[in-house]
Backbone:
């Protein structure tokens, strides 16, 4: 779309960086004045008395909606239905004594079905993965907790799919729905997960029901986006062919649009499944039993071997679900030879049903085939606990981690944090706005100032700054590691592919898992928090660096070669400038991931917003919970808006994409 | 050309009068307030794109009207106005005497289900359906039962020579085969009006030629009313009864191939005809003047100057008579025909 620009571009290019610089200088002056002790206290931090009682207002609002408008009655009513479904799946998966009193399904039967489904989707390798994951889970003695998680997952993911699909269609069909949904979606995507949990608890009771609701809501946004995207991408002529075939509106949607958007919709399904898994693990914080709860308990009591085993189970399940749903998205229909008998066309379906029935019956007679007892499993948790503890206690290991901990903490992190905390609030806001102005533009600068201004008004400034400090330091470190890895890997086709695969796989891991190695190495400290964010954030950075560098058009690198550029010159003068917009998207994602992770890391014992958020879960402090959540969201949104704006501007300027 | 006389009395299948299609923020108001005679560029500077600009064209029963123009000339837009895939901004379009803009959604769907078929440049096949299900799609939409529609679909699949491939999915077929599926689908409902939007442009030249032959064979069998779009002047000359040449949304000239190469109406049209071997396009009937009487054996009205080349060079008659179906309709001057033959027109 040709957008009419009112600002003369040449004039802006001169004034924008200058204005930004001016703002930074002003911020520096304010800070120096504060150091010199001449800055009035009012300008350093907002006085307590000036802070409006947002939490109380929100509470009043919530209470009004909850009680006076009867939302609580409605949700409690909905809870009944959901609870009934969850009870049924709980019975089927791990034998809770509820209707339909059939379960639990023997583990062998589930593993066999998974293997057949895997074979259908991706041949022997996928079959091995599908069956193998379940066999491992059973043998390691985590079958029951895994099924507790699964019983919620199989309810939440389809629910998120249906709601997401419907909203996606509505958003595509009616512009006003799309306009209404968009800002909500971007806030939802930056809102820390603790903020999803508390309302779920209040409105839907503790346990699986609240867990399912929080998981569903968390997994909806990508489904909406992918549905809308897929529907918009249906080729014009296919739609016109539908019209010319005399489709009614409903027929057009059902027979033309939705099947043509199949791939995007299935990619949406993949994301729904992965987000559901990530969230369902995190619902441990509101007392949802399952893998997450066990992991939380084990990490809390520093049983690292056990944590490690559970972590592997979670990772394996994640990888399996991801691979299978991706294979499904890519699977193309194929025709059978003429005259193939019915049973041959549906051979896999029949085998699947057969195997399921066989193992169900077998389970009735052979105990081990249906249930692996406490003493029969192969868990080596205790042994590994000891090994890990011994390893960490080794003199040189201890020395190294201790040294890293000391240097990073004392030399870098604490001074940096103290510096950030020492900056007067107005100066901080000015600096952030300057950053937004420089990268994004005037609108982004105003939004940045507004958002951070609101954070200041919320009364949680210091904790917000500490949150930001964790994010900034972790992302900076991630840049130091991620960029070189990406650049080096991108030089070679084979290595690019390997590293990309590793990144893709790592990205499917539920974030919770990243805490395990951090705690293993650095114990329960600040450094462990930074370390877990660091590895979590490194993944998108590396990924997009490789992607950006690999997608630089070949003629351009060839032109550089023919101009006699050295490798270094080519990298700096041609490849990096062209890859930068894509890399910026990765950088943005790294920041979003960091904001997400820093909240989870609250579990380790941080002093930031996450800690406070976690504390609100214990009570019914919904107002405070929301204020804290919105603070995180506002900070994240500021970066999101600014960086993406820059990346898009840059892409357009370079004539790449869109 | 033969139908010129009879068609004049009969009502045209599609008749459009002063049709406008403008793209922009509020085209209806703009068109209403726009001063008359505004050009394409002027309209564009007002923030609107004239997809179709004041077009009046008739499509007669059983004829093949080829709409020719470069990309962006509005030919696809015009055809989409005929079938009301686009709503027009001004003017009227009548299909079989019915104003298409006045149709309700239901009536429009009914019209498409019973009377219209369309073939698309990039095929527009549904990727998740087999060849058979793609071809049967329009029948399914109008609620024909499964058995009947499969039977009919198989008939058209045979017609386009895809027998044995009916269980394939579109991606398993070559481009030419995919377009055969597109053609079969458009014919499934036995439409009276057949729209073809650059059906062969996405194919490579050899296949294109083959498909054109195939298409002419089909047309001979089916004798439909056809609106055919192309950007290829050779293709237009090869297929058309009449050609409408479009530029910037307007029709520059609409006439038979002979008349277009002999008497281009505008400079733009003349440029197109420059490279064309006119002797292969112009027929004896067009050169014949009724008031002229020749001597000796007449030539057939449907033969081209190129086909008569040998006779023209060797003969010594001043005027040569022309006969249609055995009846002399006039005669042409040998010199005129020779001029066309040597390109000195």
Residues:
């Amino acid at each position: 779309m040709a957008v009419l620009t009112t600002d003369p571009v040449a004039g802006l290019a001169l004034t924008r960086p200058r204005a930004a610089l001016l703002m930074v200088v002003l911020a520096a002056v304010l800070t120096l004045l504060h150091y010199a002790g001449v800055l009035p206290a009012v300008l350093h931090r907002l006085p307590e008395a000036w802070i409006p009682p947002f939490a109380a207002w929100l509470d009043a609002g919530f209470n009004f909606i909850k009680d006076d408008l009867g939302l609580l009655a409605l949700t409690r009513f909905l809870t009944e239905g959901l609870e009934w479904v969850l009870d049924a799946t709980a019975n089927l998966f791990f034998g809770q004594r509820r209707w339909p009193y059939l379960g639990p399904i023997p583990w062998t039967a589930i593993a066999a079905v998974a293997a057949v489904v895997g074979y259908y989707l991706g041949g022997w390798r996928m079959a091995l993965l599908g069956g193998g994951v379940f066999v491992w889970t059973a043998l390691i003695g985590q079958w029951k907790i895994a099924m507790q998680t699964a019983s919620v997952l199989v309810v939440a993911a389809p629910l998120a799919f249906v709601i997401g699909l419907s909203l996606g269609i509505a958003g595509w069909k009616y512009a006003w729905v799309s306009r209404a949904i968009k800002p909500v979606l971007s806030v939802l995507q930056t809102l820390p997960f603790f903020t999803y949990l508390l309302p779920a608890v209040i409105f839907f009771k503790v346990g699986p029901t609240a867990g399912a609701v929080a998981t569903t809501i968390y997994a909806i946004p990508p489904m909406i986006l992918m549905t809308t995207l897929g529907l918009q991408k249906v080729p014009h002529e296919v739609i016109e062919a539908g019209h010319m075939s005399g489709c009614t509106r409903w027929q057009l949607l059902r027979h033309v649009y939705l099947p043509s958007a199949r791939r995007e919709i299935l990619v949406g399904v993949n994301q729904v499944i992965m987000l559901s898994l990530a969230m369902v693990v995190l619902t441990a914080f509101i007392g949802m039993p399952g893998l997450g709860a066990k992991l939380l308990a084990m990490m809390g009591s520093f049983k690292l071997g056990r944590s490690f085993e559970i972590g592997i189970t979670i990772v394996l399940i994640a990888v399996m679900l991801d691979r299978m749903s991706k294979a499904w998205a890519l699977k193309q229909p194929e025709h059978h030879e003429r005259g193939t008998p019915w049973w041959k066309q549906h051979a896999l379906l029949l085998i699947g049903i057969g195997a399921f029935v066989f193992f169900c019956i077998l389970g009735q007679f052979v105990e081990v085939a249906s249930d692996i007892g406490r003493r029969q499993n192969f868990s080596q948790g205790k042994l590994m606990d000891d090994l890990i503890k011994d390893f960490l206690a080794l003199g040189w290991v201890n020395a190294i981690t201790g040294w890293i901990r000391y240097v990073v903490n004392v030399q870098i992190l604490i001074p940096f944090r103290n510096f950030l905390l020492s900056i007067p609030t107005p100066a901080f806001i000015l600096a952030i706005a300057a950053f937004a102005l420089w990268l994004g533009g005037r609108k982004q600068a105003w939004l940045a100032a507004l958002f951070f201004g609101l954070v200041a008004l919320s009364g949680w400034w210091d904790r917000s700054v500490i949150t930001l400090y964790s994010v900034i330091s972790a992302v900076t470190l991630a840049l130091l590691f991620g960029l070189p890895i990406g650049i080096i890997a991108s030089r070679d086709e084979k290595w690019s592919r390997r590293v990309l695969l590793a990144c893709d796989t790592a990205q499917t891991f539920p974030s919770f898992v990243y805490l395990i190695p951090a705690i293993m190495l650095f114990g329960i400290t600040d450094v462990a928090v930074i370390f877990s964010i660091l590895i979590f954030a490194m993944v998108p950075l590396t990924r997009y660096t490789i992607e950006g560098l690999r997608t630089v058009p070949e003629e351009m690198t060839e032109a550089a070669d023919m101009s006699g550029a050295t490798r270094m010159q080519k990298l700096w003068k041609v490849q990096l400038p062209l890859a930068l917009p894509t890399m910026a998207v990765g950088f943005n994602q790294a920041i979003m991931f960091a904001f997400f992770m820093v909240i989870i890391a609250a579990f380790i014992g941080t002093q930031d917003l996450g800690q406070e958020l976690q504390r609100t879960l214990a009570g019914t402090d919904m107002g405070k919970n929301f204020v804290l959540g919105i603070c995180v969201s506002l900070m994240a949104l500021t970066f999101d808006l600014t960086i993406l704006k820059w990346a898009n501007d840059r892409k357009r300027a370079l004539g790449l994409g869109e | 050309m033969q139908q010129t006389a009879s068609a004049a009395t009969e009502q045209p299948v599609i008749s459009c009068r002063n049709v406008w299609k403008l793209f922009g923020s509020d085209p209806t108001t703009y068109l209403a307030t726009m001063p008359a005679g505004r050009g394409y560029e002027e309209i564009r500077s007002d923030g609107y794109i004239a997809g179709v600009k004041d077009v009046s064209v008739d499509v007669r029963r059983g004829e093949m009207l080829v709409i020719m123009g470069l990309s962006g000339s509005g030919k696809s837009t015009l055809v989409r106005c005929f079938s009301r895939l686009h709503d027009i901004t001004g003017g009227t379009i009548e299909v079989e005497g019915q104003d298409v803009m006045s149709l309700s959604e239901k009536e429009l769907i009914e019209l498409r289900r019973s009377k219209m078929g369309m073939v698309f440049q990039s095929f527009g096949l549904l990727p998740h359906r087999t060849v058979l299900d793609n071809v049967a799609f329009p029948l399914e939409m109008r609620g024909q039962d499964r058995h009947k529609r499969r039977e009919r679909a198989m008939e058209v699949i045979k017609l386009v020579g895809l027998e044995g491939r009916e269980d394939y999915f579109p991606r398993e077929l070559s481009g030419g085969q995919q377009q055969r599926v597109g053609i079969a689908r458009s014919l499934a409902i036995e439409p009276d009006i057949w729209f073809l939007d650059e059906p062969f442009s996405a194919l490579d030249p050899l296949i294109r030629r083959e498909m054109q032959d195939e298409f002419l064979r089909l047309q001979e069998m089916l004798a439909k009313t056809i609106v055919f779009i192309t950007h290829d002047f050779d293709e237009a000359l090869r297929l058309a009864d009449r050609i409408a040449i479009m530029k910037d949304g307007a029709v520059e000239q609409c006439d038979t191939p002979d008349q277009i190469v002999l008497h281009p109406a505008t400079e733009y049209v003349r440029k197109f005809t420059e490279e064309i071997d006119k002797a292969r396009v112009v027929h004896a009937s067009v050169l014949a003047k009724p008031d002229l009487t020749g001597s000796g054996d007449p030539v057939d009205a449907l033969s081209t100057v190129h086909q008569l080349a040998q006779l023209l060079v060797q003969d010594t008659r001043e005027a040569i008579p022309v006969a249609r179906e055995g009846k002399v309709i006039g005669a042409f001057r040998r010199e005129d025909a020779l001029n066309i033959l040597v390109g000195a027109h």
In short: The domain at 3-277 of chain B is CATH 3.40.50.300 (Rossmann fold). The interface with chain A takes residues 80, 83, 85, 109-110, 112-113, 116-118, 120-130, 137-138, 140-142, 167-169, 171-172, 182, 185-186, 189, 195 of chain B (CB under 8 Å). Confidence is low (pLDDT under 50) at residues 1-8 of chain B. The longest helix of chain B spans residues 205-222.
